[in-house]
Each structure stands twice: as structure tokens, then as C-alpha cells.
Amino acid sequence: MNLERAFRISSILLAASGFTGLILTGELPIGLVELGAAALALSFMQGAGWNADWLVFRLSPGAWNAMLASAFIAFGVDLLWISQDLLPAGIHFLILLMVNKLLTLQQRKDFLHLYAISLLEILAAAALTVELWYGAVFLAYLLAAIWTLLLYHLRNEAEEAGAVLHTARGPVDPARTPGPITGRFFWTTNAVAVAAFGLTVAIFFIIPRIGAGFFQKDRAELVRTSGFSEKVDLGIIGAIKLDETVVMRVEFPDHNGPLTEGLYFRGAAYNIYNGRSWTNSLARRRVLGQSEGGVIKVVAPEASAAGQPGLRQEILVEALDTTVLFGVPFVESIKGFFLFVLVDGMGDLYMPYHPNARFQYSAYSTATRLHEQERIGTAFTYPAHVRKQYLQLPEVSQSVADLARGIVRQATTPYEMAVAVERHLRETYRYSLDVGTAVSVSPVDDFLFTRKSGYCEHYATAMVVMLRVLGIPARLVTGFLHGEWNDFGNYYTVRQRDAHAWVEVLFPRSGWITFDPTPSVPAAGSNPLWSRLGSVVDSIRLKWDRLVILYSFRDQLAIAQDIRERGDTVRVQVAGWLATALRWAATARTRLAELRSASEWLLVGTLVGCLGLVGLIAIARMRGRLWNGRRRLMLHTPWQAAAVRLYGQMLRLLESRGVSKAAGAAPLEFARLVNREWPAADRFVGPLTELYCRVRFGQAPLSSEDLRQADDLLAGLRAVRRL
Fold first, then answer.
1. pLDDT tens digits for 91-113?
2. Cα–Cα distance between 434 and 448 in angstroms, integer?
3. Is-contact 702 637, C-beta < 8 A?
4. Which residue, of 62, 125, 370, 708, has the fewest CB within 10 Å?
5. From the candidate CATH numbers 3.10.620.30, 3.40.50.1820, 2.50.20.10, 3.40.190.10, the one assigned to the domain spanning 372-480+498-521
6. For the stretch 98-135, what's the b/e string if a residue is b when 16 or more beta carbons lie within 10 angstroms of its beta carbon?
7. Model pTM greater than 0.85?
8. 3 state SS of 370
């Protein structure tokens, strides 16, 4: 492939990579996608050398300028009345500019304009998306950019050489001056691109982080959740139990595998039940600010569960339509990009504002454990405000009350009563999502005595109602189960289908203890291969989010601290190695001092001599390679390049007659050889060799007359070869 064709194709591929990034964001109108794709296809066919009249657009400069002015007017209309936003309107204008340039690629400035447009396109795509595919598109853009810029430089050099090296028959074709573009060139370019990409990654992790950009898209496509608003109707969670949408991903840095115990991610709690829905009467929120190190303390240290092991979580949450912050119960401290959080009377945590993108935070939780005294205690006394908030009941049928008392008739303690109710619901009723959407007069009665099937809200509500009938404070809690464990990334993937409701029972000293009356449901079967592939892709996506999209100044500080600690470790190791080396040196010196016999000295001398000889040979070979490489790189002027090219043509003509130049032969020595073996060619070879030496090594300029003479000499040599 010649230079001109490779240059044009590479330039079009650069524009195509930027345009592809915009297409994959899903933000471009279909009309602009089709227009841009058509312009790229036509331009590519022109660059690839297709000869067809319909590929050539013959419009006057005035017509093109009129089209450009129309595009600018369309940009103003789009900005003021259609998109009403600078980013989408600017992107639409960019596509029109790209189409204009693709169809008018003639001068050097046209290509530079196209490169600038492609750069703006890839930057706009970065502002519109945070998806994993952008990394692949950016790498493709980087490869195309390096190809294009190298070819652009070579093309300019060829044009300059063509301006100097001209013959009487006209200027030298710049596309043919440097010779064809080979596969080796592109492989070398790819290696340069990979190195540049590595440098880019290093710079990305070093430069200071900026939280948001001026043109970052305010994404409004929030994941709709259920069960975390101020009011929760029975049946609302069941509607999303078949939704596969990812809600969050949770890592446990201090654990290398899945946790064996039941895992819940607590969201919101409710204490008031009116017979059909739940509300929170303690919804008033207060502000919790940061303490030392940016950590927000939710529970005072003296109020935490003493002696209980804590659980650290790294949580990446998708853009949800709720401000609830989730965590394993019960969260003691939290740390994230927010300066403060809100907490209500239930202990539920909230962000101060709705998120517009996925975000991450760290949480530290300590589980409450039931004290042994309360496990065997037969009766407890609760304050009036606790009885008011957590024993409230609507009008409950006598059937429900009788059932509750019948279930616990053999229990002697509140704990045994709670366990008995939990076990009865788990073992007696069937889990089902097919319970209809109609709300009966009493959903609890309908669940317990009519349908005898339901999902988590029905089980949890029935348990809370029956415990309150028995005088045991309880409340309903909504959140998520642990979800799927990802072996490749060591984290849990929590989806909408993992939404859940359970029960918390209050014990005076132990606090709130979790009970779950919902029976376990077998996981739906799936193809193992697709499941593993999905886990791999999801793990890569999590790394992308953590290390690229959400990489922050806090992460930089953590990495710097880790590097410093590792540096201290390396310094200690190096000091140990040096001490060992010094001990070995001292031992060797002692051994040398003990060498007495001549045979030992002769052996040592022979060994040193051999090593020295090997070293000299290696140095000589290295210097020879460096000198050969230097000779290949010593072409500083276009005249020298032209002389080498002419001399090479002469050598190829001689080789066709069986006269070959040895690798180490000097030019004049080879000319004498030609005179001996092919006397008829001497009158052509001699002047060409003299011209080559004068320009190549004497750095003399190459005139038009010299070029004309060289062409005549080569023509004469070709004629003699045919005889």
C-alpha cells in the first residue's frame, strides 16, 4: 500500500473511531447516524482507490460554505429550541462538520480539521458515558491517531522532498518517494501506541482528580426501586422480584470468599401499619458530619456492640431513585464522597441529595447479638415510647390473635415466641409471586387463612402483627439479600430481584435482632457457561468503575500511602541484601588471602582471562551493531536519501546480471569488481558510484542536472543489461 492511500485510510479510520464512540452512547439521532456513516463510507471508498464518478462531489467552494453556514444556523436552533443544552447541540454540530470535511478532503488543513473534530467526538463520548466499552473505543482511537500522525508526518516529508528532488519531467510523486507502507510499519506503530497507552494510564493515576466536569452529562436514567419511600404498600416489592437490573456491588476487603452466614443489606425500617401499608413515624432526619479522616460516625463508640467483630464493606451503588444508603446491619461508620449524611429515628441513613450517577462508599458494621440473659428471660419491660411506636396495631381480627397465641402456646420466653412465629411461617406457607394485585380488606388475614402463599412482605408483615399481638416490639425492614457471589472479582452482585423484607425484634439490652420468616427460594437455573462469562464481564466492569470512572483524590492518597509503605519494605529488603553481599565479599576476600599454591592462582588467572576475552568479544559485536544502526540512521538530507535510492536501483540492476555487492564491500571497491566482471557496465557504474559517494558521504547537494544524469546512466545500464 502506498503512502497516500495509507494516509487517507488512516485519517478516515480516526474519524470513524470518534464517531463510533458517539454512536454507542445512544444519544445521536438516527438521521445523523445514517448521514455520518454514509459520509465515512464514501470517503473510505475514495481513499481506498475506488474509481467511480459518483464518488466525486463537484461543488463550488461557495456551495460548501453555504452548507457550512446552514449547519451553524442549525446549531443555533438546536441549542435554543430543540436540545436546549450545549453538549448535545454541540455534538450534532460536530457531526455536520465531520460530514463536510470528509467530502472535501483535499488540502493539508482539511485533514487537520478532521483530526480536531475526531478528538472532540471522543471527548464528547467520554462525557456521555461511563460504560466499559469506552475503554475499547478509546484504545482504537489511540491506535488510529498514532498511525495517522506518523503517516501525516511522512507525507509532509515526502512533499518537501518532492519539492527539492524534481526532474525535468516534473516533480516526484510524494506518494512514491518513501516507498510502500508495509505490515512491519503498522506493527511498530502498534507497539508505539501500546507504550503511549501505558504512559497515558500512568498519567491518569498520577494527575490530581477533579470531581466533575463542566460538560458531564446529568444522567436522569435512574434505576427505579421499590420499598424505600415514606410509604410502602403490601405487594410493591413483589413487582420487581423478576427484575435482573443490578442495584449495587459489594466487596468485603477483609474476606477472600463469600460469607457463610445470612447476609442482608439494610435500607429502611417502618413502624406504623394501617392494615394495608407501612409508614415511618420517626422520619425526621438529623445531620451527621465528618469526623477525623472523613469518616462519619453513625453510632458513638461507647454505644457500639462491645466485643463484636466488625465487617468492612466497599459498596458501589448504581444511580437509584432513592437516597437511602445501604449496609449490613448495623452501620457504625460510613465514608464516601459526601460531606455529611442524614439519619432518621429508625437509624436509616440517607444521602443529602439524589444521585445522578453511580457512586461508591465504605461502611463499617457491627452485628447485634442476643444476650444469653434475654434468650432465657421470661418477661421484659419496655418504655412507654417504645410501646407506642412498636406495639401499634390497626384493628386485628380475632383469628389472627388466636393463631398467634396458638403458635406460641409452648413457648416460655419472648425469644422463643419470636422463633416459634418465624418457624411457623417458614414451614406452613408457600412462597409465591403469583398472588394477584388486588388489595383485600385485610391482607394479613388473606395471606394467613385464604391464599396461604405470598412473598416476603406478606411474611414479614404477618410476623410483625402477630408479635405485636403478643406484646413483643417489632418492625418491618426493607433492603436486599446478598445476591450472587462473583468468584472472579470477590464481591456480591445485588439485583432488583434480591429486594427483600424482614423483621427486627427489640430486646431491651441486646437491641434490634433480625428475624426472617420468609422461606428460602431455590435460585433459578442458568447456563453455567453463560453464568461464568457474565461473572467475568461484570468483574471487569467493576474494575473499570472503581479504577477509572470513580477513581478519586482519596484513592490517590491511598495509593501514595501504599507505595510509601512498600518502599519502606523494599528499603529494608535491599539493606538486608547489601549486608548479605558484604558478608559474601568478606568471605571471598578471606578465601583469596588463603590461596597459596600456584595452581590456584593459575586457575583464577585463567578464569579472569576467559571472562575478559568474552567481554571484549561482546563489546566488539555490540559496537559493530551500534555502528551499523548508526550508519542506517545517518541520512540527514533529502539529497542523501535520493542518492541512496539511486544507488540501490543500480545494485538491483547489477544483481539481475549476477554481479552482487558483498555486505562489507566499499562502493569504490565494488565498482572495480564490476569493471573486471562486466566491463560494458563500467561506464555507467563508475559515475553513479562517484555521485553516490559525493552526496552520501561528502554531503554535497544534489542538483537537477545530477538527477537527470543519474536517470540517463540508469537507463543506459538497463539497455546494456538487455544485450
1. 999 999 999 899 888 888 999 99
2. 16
3. no
4. 62
5. 3.10.620.30
6. bbbbbbbbeeeeebebbbebbebbbebbbebbbbbebe
7. no
8. coil
